[in-house]
Amino acid sequence: MTKQRVLTGITTTGTPHLGNYVGAIRPAIAASQDENNQSFYFLADYHALIKCQDPAQVHQSTLEIAATWLALGLNTDNVVFYRQSDVHEIPELTWLLTCMTGKGLMNRAHAYKAAVDANRADGEDSDFGVTMGLYSYPILMAADILMFNANKVPVGKDQVQHIEMARDIAQRFNHHYGEHFALPEAVVDDHVAVLQGLDGRKMSKSYGNTIPLFLPEKKLKKHINKIKTNLLEPGEPKDPDTSTVFQVWQAFASEEQTAEMRKAFEEGIAWGEAKKQLFELVNGQIGEARERYNELLANPDKIEAELEKGAVKARAYSAPFIEKLRHAVGIRKIG
Asked: Considering the domain 4-193+300-329 in this protein, what is its CATH number?
């Protein structure tokens, strides 16, 4: 049976937090163990430049995120784990695809339309502050996917449009130059956990309400103690379904542990005790990975070696494929 190619892009902006772990990293690493899949994971550092022009931050974030995935058990012998910028064929494919992409398609991109709407609401020119990176980044995303002819791309609901755009671009290229690209499918997990942050809103770097994944023990405990709760006293029943403390607990606990904590809430567990138990649960699960993470940060050459190994594996696919695509569009030797 032919293996399905599954491609996952990892944004290299910001420090990974518990929400990233529960919602994306943990399920992706579990999926990488599926022997029916051929899995590709890449650090999207070209994409990072669209939102961040701080070189030090882009570099540091790439280091931290690579270390995070490796520390949490991504087996690079079984998958292709690479840095986007190490695969030199991707920018070239981006240009080939750009030449086949209608401007009208890019005009419909959600991120671009949101920027235009915000500008108009502020009385600015529609394209004020809009870079070509923001405008055309769905084409770069299409190149990421089509470079390896990925069959399936796990994404959030807000990214489904970009997979549909990649399909449209691939179909147009195939129609014009012959069948070269597989048509990717978006994979959306409706059951993936979305953690609430310290203030009860969705955990997000943009809200400043995150709990970084690999905080030292004391700082992790301090952050968990900051989780917003109501004023109910010890002994008063508490509603677990409206509690951020319980929601985070549920994301890390077994079914049995979840049932026990739900009962404790109904019996009026004190918020301090609930947070203490939550800290112990989370810390117990990430403690060993945190040690590996800190060891990797102290030895960045180990991370670089893994990425370079991944680049060699990735380019074993991309280098011959771009030659084939060059030939298809007419860029080839004359003699």
From this structure: 3.40.50.620
